[in-house]
Specification:
Number of strands: 19
Largest sheet: 9 strands, mixed
Shape: globular
Oligomer: single chain
CATH topology: Thrombin, subunit H
Radius of gyration: 19 Å
Distance between the termini: 46 Å
Length: 292
């Protein structure tokens, strides 16, 4: 065999072997089933916080003893019906129940793309959420504006999502939603340890202090995040209902700006995980959602 050809093969194999991030499965998309006027105020009040996380990538998250990170609590909230985060309502086609998560608007050329946890979008084995709507600035149990979600994109391996994040496309017919709500920039390479991040969600329990924890108002926690294996974590339970909520580096409370570096995936006492973003996967998910 040609020595030059063998040399090039070795280079390719070396790159593949040493690559920290690769798209492990297939990017799939779905245009959601939407029923007109499905979400009444009563259904929103009775929606259940989604907590299940069955990511097939969990098995690679080998944990070691962690040092406690410095924690800074914050109860800063400012009501504005047009903000780049909110409550995400949807119907689970698997069990027939209504749930809610947290989602955010991210900066894209399309202008109508959101980010949330994959387990809020896709139930596995071809089962997707339906009747999804986004309420930016959901506050005190009130949805100031309800934005239908046209569809979403996730990465799957053997019928299940792999990394617990995905993209949603808003069915917004007045231009770009990000121009109305504002949006977060995104960063797929923030480093292993990131100081000054803010996690936002709508929990009904958990360990965020100075927070109503009733699922009706946003809770915000500020502190540091570190990497552990294939996940990023913060040292507290952000609570049920915060799934999909953005983790924002250098969050500006006044202008609602910053850089999303992660999203709430799975919580337990003293810890909440976020997937590690891969630029390749992140941009592919974004691109596929934009085409819906």
């Amino acid at each position: 065999m040609n020595e030059k050809f063998i040399f090039y093969i070795l280079i390719v194999l070396t790159v593949i072997t040493n690559s920290k991030y690769m798209v492990a499965g297939s990017i799939i998309t779905k245009v959601f089933d939407i029923e007109d006027a499905y979400w009444t105020p009563e259904r929103m009040r009775n929606a259940i916080p989604l907590t299940t996380n069955e990511s097939k990538n969990n098995k690679t998250n080998y944990r070691t003893k962690r040092d406690q990170l410095p924690v800074k609590e914050s109860n800063i909230t400012s009501y504005n019906p047009y903000v780049p985060y909110g409550k995400l309502f949807f119907h689970n086609t698997g069990d027939g129940k209504n749930y809610f998560c947290t989602a955010s608007v991210i900066r894209t050329e399309n202008g109508n793309i959101g980010l949330t946890a994959a387990h809020c979008i896709y139930n596995g084995n071809g089962s997707w959420s339906s009747n999804m709507v986004f309420c930016p600035g959901y506050e005190n149990g009130q949805c100031p504006v309800s934005i239908p979600v046209k569809g979403g994109s996730v990465e799957v391996v053997d019928g299940h999502y792999y990394y617990d994040y995905g993209m949603i496309k808003f069915n917004y017919d007045q231009g770009k939603l990000q121009d109305k709500t504002g949006c977060f920039d995104w960063d797929t390479n923030p480093g292993d340890t990131v100081n000054n991040i803010t996690a936002i969600g709508y929990p009904v329990n958990g360990e965020i202090k100075d927070c109503k924890r009733d699922g009706n108002s946003p809770c915000k926690w500020n502190g540091s995040s570190s990497r552990s294996g294939s996940f990023r974590y913060v040292p507290l339970n952000t609570g049920s209902g915060s799934s999909g909520g953005p983790w924002i580096r250098q969050y500006d409370y006044k202008n609602n700006t910053g850089w999303v570096i992660g999203n709430t995936s799975a919580s337990k006492s003293g810890s909440t995980d976020s997937p590690i973003y891969s630029f390749e996967e992140f941009t592919k998910l974004l691109h596929e959602a934009s085409k819906l």
